[in-house]
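Open question from group meeting: does this chain pack into something compact, or does most of it stay loose? Before anyone orders reagents, we agreed to write out a predicted structure and look at it together. Recording both the input and the output here so the notebook holds the full record.
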Amino acid sequence: MKITRQDLRRIIKEELQTVMDEDYSMLSNMTPGDALAYMEENLNGKTWVFWDLETIGFKGQITQYGALAFKIDDIAGPAPSKPVSSFEVNVALSEATKEQMAKEQALVARADEIYNAEIDAYQAEQEVSDEFKFVRSMKKAHENGRPHTVKDMLDYTHHTPSESDMGEKEALQQFVDWFTGLGDNILSAGHNIISFDRRRIIAEGQRLGVDTSVFEDLDVFDTLKFQRELMQNVAREMMERGDEKMTKFFRETEKKVKGEIKKVMAFNGKLQKMMDLYGPGPDYIQLHTAVDDTKQLVEAFFKIYADVKKFVENPEIGDTTRYINVKKGQKELGRKDLEDPRDISRAISDFRRD
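Structure tokens returned:
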């Protein structure tokens, strides 16, 4: 049977719909009150598994897995402290990673020599070597307090090799098996896991020959999306009412709006900012290990949720339609007859429940 373009569009749409339905952190185009009601109806009673990876850069190997599982009966309750299960694995450095580190450290030892030999050519916009490009990028990263080399990343994440380290394939297989062993009604949760960590697991499964299909089918909740699609809107409302704590989530910056440069208050959704305001405090040094980051995220998320719920009890905040994009809502619903933002919110809330 011949497959038409219309058939392909329908198949793609259905696949996209399936992915969307699994993502419970899609909270846009609902009022804050509707968004919280949607979360509590769908997510209370699940086993939330907060997890994190540490890697050597965006494309480098995974070096740590950390996960904590909690049975959550009330999202609005206190932050859970006793996991029903946990997972922590340090991954042995692959031969490719060791080779890359050795090459980089050889360049680091000659960094000043390489830089001084070619900086004039670089400033004159002449061709420079790959060695110079590496050294220049490293210097720039270090000046900004960012890790750049493999060794930098290992130090940054406190990766200390030990005899108990697992190989890449074994570590991934055990991580997936651990998730599978938790039973049903599981929610995969973490900070920026949809854009980064989850994709890495799937890609590594394909590369290493590990079946990650059960993991891929899990419902997902991304705390970064929760911040961007709900929490920041509530925080902005509170900031405009003079709430000092919420003001600290924003910084003034410049942005081009319709061709004109304007000053705007940009939201900061980084884990470190969450920890500063809702975790151990600004004096706590983030360890950047998978397990420690996960522990801090759990504490910060539930405290943030409690504050958001408290703020939303004010109808002026809970019922606000200020952040609802009617056109996008109509497109998602496939209904142009709905024009009132409140109707859009209720319809989307019901639509995503289904």
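Observations to bring back to the group:
Residues 95 and 201 are 20 Å apart (CA to CA).
Confidence is low (pLDDT under 50) at residues 9-21.
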